């Protein structure tokens, strides 16, 4: 058989779940992981332990792979270009991926292709932040380092010029954005293949707690059909214009005046798409693998009227196994996804999916399980 | 975290799919495989290469496992008893498993607990076969070696005393059975945990071609509700009486006069349960893992009105990858499960699942994909 080898850089839970999705596809899956204890490294057969920032390590890893893809966006662009020059397909490629690595590049490109974003500008210093505030409705202003942020890290909401000093200390360029008056956050997830086939998942509502995704509801309840279609088309258009291959998550603000503005882009399977593992005909992970191999994509439509994903965060108690038994006994329909990670307070260690016809029931079951596993619910 | 380690003996596709189901459960999965090329050995992180017939190998493998379970029924009973004496939970245990290893023991036990079987008797030689035939409706008679058969191997349908010589050549005891006048074959699949919780999947129709499972339809079309319930209760009762832990497949004949008779038992995930991977709320593999760990079992109910599984057998052309692309493009809802095995004519190398509301459509899609992959359909 000539079934191909997919190499994935990064040993986190996204790689773990991509491997899981790759098993039925019959592909061989190779992993480059920081340590043998990483989430994906525990479950993959072919694991190379090494540093993705080292080009020689990447080159050695890429040997024998038919395509390289990613669990995260941190591989340096020049290394990806070197792999491409070696003849290894890198998907998404460096010219696309830079838009998920650098928020300044992303904003400039979205402006150029006419995609609506929050008002924004690269700022040089606190005085420049004050000027940016004055050009709009004043403070608060959102400041973001253009590179290296995730899950609320590298993001500040500042109320004054005094508070604006902190983000500049790292010496990384800083992007200022208006604080959008949004009613909720949405995500439009699409998958695109090298030959240009693309599929769109239904637009979901993403609820954040302290900058970390907490709950995702698929599809977004009560979302106007035209606005949903507009968001899906926007995500498909971004994928095409930026040359994305694989899964693209477009995180959106739904504004009080009925528009959607792009918040962030991620070019890999994404937390807002975890519901697809149990809630869609084809999961985001399976479609990501199919896309990077240029296989025909699978049907992205939902299997249930409502699917809810709730993240399981670490709590104060390190052993989740007894809580786990309780949750399984309480709800035999619950779909639990554990990542094999040590429990640390606030760390994402798993997620649960629930689905059904009654949104209140589906939400309650997901939230109860996630809260019980974390230890914030005890009955 | 104190998530447990499941050790599985045997590197075939059942272990591969059990590992896949174990990943979201967060358990560690250890494999004892004959070779590194075996289906499961390609995708599992912790693989021990060794011979399951060697007790020292089994003991070394079992060290650090919280439970031992099986991809096949071939581990010698005395080795399993030795592991149990070492304090390793073996699930299913040797006293249960012997009923899936030895058809003579199985028939005697089912007789004792009043489960209806085809008329049967252990026979000593061809003359004894002739006597057995005369006691009933004459030839044909089915002869089976009591140990070692699978997928039609070790089974003969003989029309005369002359033909009855062959099965005795291996020197293994031979079981004679009446050739049942059945209208179709069914399977009743159940899962049972050590503390006695049990779940029953809907009874399915299993269509065989040349002694090998070809297509499974879930649920069995047009099956009388009372008969379905009777079959489920029979399977649950067998699981309880025999002390089965894990998945039990009860293969059944549905007779022309409206009864069900037990054909075979398998105490592991089974081909007749592959449809559950995409068609049930909880798959047989996930429930097998939950059972052997004594975790609460998951909901076995179907997610679609009809689910069809079709086995992909090897054909004359060794490279399935281009056929694979065609099938994905033709049917974006198709669920393909490839086992990573080299293609040999007639060898099970994968299966496909389809589901939906219209049985004719669901059947056509599954059969087309399986036939196209094998090469018997070319358009």
TrEMBL record, chains A, B:
UniProt GO MF annotations: 5-(carboxyamino)imidazole ribonucleotide synthase activity
InterPro entries listed in its UniProt record: ATP-grasp, ATP-grasp_carboxylate-amine, ATP_grasp_subdomain_1, PreATP-grasp_dom_sf, PurK, PurK_C, PurT/PurK_preATP-grasp, Rudment_hybrid_motif
Keywords carried by this UniProt record: ATP-binding, Ligase, Nucleotide-binding, Purine biosynthesis
Catalytic reaction equation(s): 5-amino-1-(5-phospho-beta-D-ribosyl)imidazole + hydrogencarbonate + ATP = 5-carboxyamino-1-(5-phospho-D-ribosyl)imidazole + ADP + phosphate + 2 H(+)
Domain of life: Bacteria
Name of a matching Pfam family: ATP-grasp
E.C. code: 6.3.4.18
Binding site for ATP: 103, 144, 177-180, 185, 263-264
This protein's record includes keyword Mitochondrion: no
Pathway in which the depicted protein is active: Purine metabolism; IMP biosynthesis via de novo pathway; 5-amino-1-(5-phospho-D-ribosyl)imidazole-4-carboxylate from 5-amino-1-(5-phospho-D-ribosyl)imidazole (N5-CAIR route): step 1/2
UniProt domain ATP-grasp: residue ranges: 107-294
Binding partners and assembly: Homodimer.
Matches recorded under HAMAP family: PurK (MF_01928)
Family: Belongs to the PurK/PurT family.
Protein purpose: Catalyzes the ATP-dependent conversion of 5-aminoimidazole ribonucleotide (AIR) and HCO(3)- to N5-carboxyaminoimidazole ribonucleotide (N5-CAIR).
Protein name: N5-carboxyaminoimidazole ribonucleotide synthase
């Amino acid at each position: 058989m000539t079934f191909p080898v997919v190499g994935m850089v990064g040993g986190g839970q996204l790689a773990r779940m991509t491997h899981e999705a790759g098993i039925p596809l019959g592909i061989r899956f190779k992993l480059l992981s920081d340590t043998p204890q990483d989430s994906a490294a525990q479950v993959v057969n072919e694991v190379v332990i090494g540093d993705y920032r080292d080009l020689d390590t990447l080159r050695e890893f890429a040997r024998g792979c038919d395509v390289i893809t990613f669990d995260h966006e941190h591989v340096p662009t020049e290394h990806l270009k070197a792999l491409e020059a070696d003849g290894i397909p890198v998907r998404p490629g460096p010219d696309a991926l830079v838009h998920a690595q650098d928020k300044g590049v992303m904003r400039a490109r979205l402006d150029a292709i006419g995609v609506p974003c929050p008002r924004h500008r690269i700022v040089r210093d606190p005085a420049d932040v004050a000027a940016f505030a004055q050009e709009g409705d004043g403070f608060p202003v959102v400041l973001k380092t253009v590179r290296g942020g995730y899950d609320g890290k590298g993001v500040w909401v500042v109320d004054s010029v005094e508070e604006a000093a902190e983000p500049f200390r790292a010496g990384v360029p800083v992007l200022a954005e208006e604080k959008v008056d949004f009613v909720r956050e949405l995500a439009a997830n699409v998958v695109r293949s090298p030959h240009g086939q693309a599929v769109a998942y239904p637009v979901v509502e993403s609820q954040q707690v302290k900058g970390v995704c907490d709950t995702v509801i698929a599809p977004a309840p009560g979302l106007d059909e035209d606005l949903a279609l507009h968001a899906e088309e926007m995500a498909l258009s971004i994928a095409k214009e930026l040359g994305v291959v694989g899964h693209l998550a477009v995180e959106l603000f739904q504004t009080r005046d009925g528009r959607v503005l792009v918040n962030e882009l991620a070019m890999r399977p994404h937390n807002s798409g975890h519901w697809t593992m149990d809630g869609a005909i084809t999961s985001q992970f399976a479609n990501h693998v199919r896309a990077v191999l240029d296989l025909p994509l699978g049907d992205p439509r939902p299997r249930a009227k409502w699917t809810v994903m709730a993240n399981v965060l670490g709590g104060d108690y390190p052993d989740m196994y007894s809580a786990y038994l309780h949750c399984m006994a309480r709800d035999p329909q619950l779909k639990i996804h554990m990542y094999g990670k040590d429990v640390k307070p606030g760390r994402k260690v798993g997620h649960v999916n629930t689905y059904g016809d009654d949104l209140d029931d589906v939400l309650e079951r997901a939230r109860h399980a996630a809260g019980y596993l974390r230890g914030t619910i005890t009955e």
